[in-house]
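In the current project phase, the collection of sequences with tokenised folds has grown. A sample record is quoted in full directly below:
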Amino acid sequence: MARNKAWRWLVLICCLPLLACAVLNSPADRHEAASTDFTRRLRWLDVGGAAQYLDSQVREEFLERFSGEDLRIVEFSLERVEFSDEDRRAAAWYLLEYHLLPSSTVRRERFRLDWEYREEGRMSPGTWYIVTPFPSLP
């Protein structure tokens, strides 16, 4: 009986850190990874990979826009993020430096993309999606 009680305590002690980590990870904590991956993929012109972060309402337009362009990205980076609605919405400002072939003139655009956190289930973490269209590049 005492051995069974000790076993329960051991299991509880081992599980507490895992539960604590799950509770401490807010949606805002998960945004950084999603935004970093999105910027990295677009910087390397992995348009399909970057598109996975866009809501289905704006994804097709994004894929069409970037599939045939002679776009070359020099730099794409996140400048700042502001969270709202209990960290389930984010306004992110980006800096994009690019040029369109055959031109070699580098252009610089700053713009905002709105992100939304969506939970997929109680036991699985949610996903961040961009819900605003990607701006047109002049």
Remarks:
- The chain has one domain: 26-130.
- The two ends are 75 Å apart (CA to CA).
- The CA atoms of residues 117 and 128 lie 4 Å apart.
- Strands lie at 71-84, 89-100, 107-118, 127-130.
